[in-house]
Q: What sequence folds into this?
């Protein structure tokens, strides 16, 4: 059974399978592709998109690597989400921690200060905004690559506003570029 429990999670449960050699685990498939394995009869599918249908099947396998046919498909749609504001450093200490926790449509509001980190939007349509603007809110890349990365298909819903960014070295870009790109902001495969 697939049950949506939040805007980004669907929980799965199923009846234990039996086998003449002994079931050692289960393979979970989402939308026709292998997702993960477990030894339990429950699985939490996380990091999903808001208001999106996902369909799951499960197969059992034994110690001899024999795999059963996949179960009948069961589908669920993640819950809708009312966007929230996440505060840094109030709710999360780092901007990246807030991005990782954010769900589509959320706003991350960052207090004045210097944040030594490199951030990646990870494809999320969220807004990262400073409270008091670029004169007092800084992201220091610590010479550890691009300071801000958009490289997972982000679109116009992925926004950053009101920061001074510095101390980025860029991220290696393979041929035909064969060079470092995006010391401040790397936008690769995104718009």
A:
């Amino acid at each position: 059974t697939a049950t949506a429990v939040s805007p980004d999670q669907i929980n799965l449960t199923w009846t234990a399978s039996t086998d003449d050699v002994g079931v050692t685990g289960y393979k979970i498939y989402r939308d026709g592709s292998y997702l993960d394995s477990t030894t339990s009869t429950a699985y939490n599918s996380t990091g999903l998109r808001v208001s999106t249908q996902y369909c799951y099947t499960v197969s059992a396998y034994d110690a001899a690597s024999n795999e059963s046919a996949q179960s009948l498909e069961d589908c669920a749609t993640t819950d809708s989400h009312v966007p929230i504001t996440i505060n840094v450093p109030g709710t999360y200490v780092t901007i990246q921690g807030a991005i990782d926790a954010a769900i589509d449509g959320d706003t991350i509001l960052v207090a004045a200060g210097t944040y030594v980190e490199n951030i990646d939007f990870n494809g999320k349509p969220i807004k990262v905004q400073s409270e008091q603007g670029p004169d007092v809110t800084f992201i220091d890349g610590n010479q550890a690559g691009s300071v801000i990365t958009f490289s997972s298909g982000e679109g116009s819903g992925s926004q950053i506003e009101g920061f001074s960014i510095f101390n980025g070295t860029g991220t290696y870009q393979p041929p035909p570029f064969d060079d470092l790109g995006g010391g401040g902001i790397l936008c690769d495969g995104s718009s």
User: Anything to note?
Assistant: The CA atoms of residues 125 and 158 lie 4 Å apart.
